[in-house]
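U., I forgot to send this yesterday:
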Amino acid sequence: MKTWVVSSYRLRINSKIILTMLDLVTRVLYRLRFLSEQRPLDAVSLAYCFPLLFLVLEKGGIGKSAAEEADEQLILAIEVLTFHTNSCKLLKVHR
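Result:
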């Protein structure tokens, strides 16, 4: 068991769950990309996505040791942001 600190809580999480959560990041990025390609998200929905997108960009991928897998996450995050370049001009979007 591994201990993770989330805010002020200490969690003990099984390593299988951690691996599933890390795969989930890529799946969520793919879903965001496909949704954004069809129709850009509204400002509030996009604001909820920013923390994940920025975390992927800052860390160079989340939980992926192979360069190709990390690059896949980076490309997906950049593509989502690319689809929303006009939305980022709005003052409503939190930065």
